[in-house]
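User: Can you predict the 3D structure for this chain?
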Amino acid sequence: MIRFIILVPLLIIFLTVSIPLQLIALLVGIVSPSARDKMSLGIVNWAFGVCLKLASVKTTFIGLENVPKDEPVLYIINHRSIFDILITYRQVPRPTGYIAKKEMKKYLTLTTWMMMLHCEFLDRTDLRQGLKVIKSSAAKIKRGISMAIFPEGTRNKTVEPTLEFHKGSFKIAEMGKCKIVPVVLNNTQTIFEDHLPALKPAHVVVEYLPPVDVPSMSREERKNLPETVRAMMTETYIKNKALV
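Assistant: Here is the predicted structure, written as structure tokens:
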């Protein structure tokens, strides 16, 4: 509980103090969008690192060599905690936008950082808006920006390793003509969600699976892609339970 009491005020302070930094980043972006991306990525990653340290999160990473450094990808990530974003974002080697639920837009300063980091906001009740997000995300990938999505559509609060994957998530890779990097997280829910509102020390295992080369797949392979990737991630999740 003490960690939570310390962390919340610090987050509020950061979001307040970072407003001038956002203005600077926006001005930098007028001259050099890539410099703005690098600046924003560095600031947010620093803040995420502080949060994880205060929460006493120990992380074991497996397969980081599977993340391509010279091309944008679509990260497919299982989802059990709000800390999933903090943990995975600190490992991205290039500007990466996460697809978040539209409710996140009500936090103005946070939304500004997310927009500068190329995030997209999804209305899960509006199919037309969802298609726009898919197209926009694919366009960003074609511009060299990686994207990340939680294909379960919500946090998994069950005992099942993964929930059903939404097929639309994979259309981003098809339209963006990029590889998919499946990312499997174990034990993130024990940081916070298992004992709200307390934060407790946790050991998290994150494994990056070999990239799935979507552009080289046949039509039939693409049709079965959600089930194929889910099966891979489920198997990895079960395997890594012994490591936490």
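The longest helix spans residues 2-31. The chain has a mean pLDDT of 95.
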